[in-house]
């Protein structure tokens, strides 16, 4: 093998190594970005359910609807003994809040109001007659 052929062979090997290193670098950069994104998503989910933290008020996409949507039984309970107009208004307010993926919100009609937390009327001062205070 002549010196030109040896140099050419070394050049090809160096080029292959450079391409391999570039691909590995890209994979590592992608993995780091994915890890950072996963950590951010986890933090957003935890903050969404943390009652003392109001930095995340909308359910992140990974949070399943059953975590913040009201059950049919609860909808029936909050609308029982209400006039048709009030029932429709309450259900419309719930649907609007759920479409915005809200975890905590208040719904009201002239005769009653409810603080809703993750699809459940709140137990601590969470409902009353008349306008909410």
Describe this structure in a few short sentences:
This protein has 133 residues and is α+β, with helices and mostly antiparallel strands. It has helices spanning 3-49, 72-79, 84-99, and strands at residues 104-109, 112-117, 120-121, 127-129. Strands 1, 2, 3 and 4 form a 4-stranded antiparallel sheet that branches.
Explained architecture:
By secondary structure, the chain is of the alpha+beta class. The chain contains 3 helices and 4 strands; from the N terminus they run αααββββ. β1 and β2 form a beta hairpin. The longest helix has 47 residues. The mean pLDDT is 83.
Keywords:
alpha+beta
Give the topology, please.
Blueprint: H1 3-49, H2 72-79, H3 84-99, E1 104-109, E2 112-117, E3 120-121, E4 127-129
Antiparallel strand pairs: 1-2, 2-3, 2-4
Q: Quick check: average pLDDT?
A: 83
Task: Give the H and E element order.
Answer: HHHEEEE
**Number of DSSP helices?**
3
Distance between the termini: 92 Å
Structural class: alpha+beta
As a percent range, the share of strand residues is: 5-15%
Number of beta-strand segments: 4
**How would you sum up the global shape?**
rod-shaped
Give the helix level as a range of percent.
40-55%
Uncertain residue ranges = none
For the report, how would you describe the main beta sheet?
4 strands, antiparallel
Global Rg: 28 Å
Oligomer: single chain
């Amino acid at each position: 093998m002549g010196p030109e052929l040896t140099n050419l062979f070394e050049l090809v090997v160096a080029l292959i190594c450079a391409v391999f290193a570039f691909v590995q670098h890209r994979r590592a950069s992608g993995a780091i970005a994915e890890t950072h994104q996963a950590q951010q998503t986890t933090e957003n989910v935890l903050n969404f359910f943390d009652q003392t933290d109001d930095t995340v008020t909308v359910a992140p996409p990974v949070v399943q609807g059953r975590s913040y949507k009201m059950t049919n039984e609860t909808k029936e309970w909050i609308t029982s003994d209400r006039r048709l107009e009030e029932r429709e208004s309450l259900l419309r307010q719930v649907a609007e809040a759920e479409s915005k993926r809200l975890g905590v919100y208040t719904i009201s009609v002239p005769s009653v109001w409810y603080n809703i937390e993750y699809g459940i009327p709140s137990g601590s001062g969470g409902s009353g007659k008349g306008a909410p205070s």
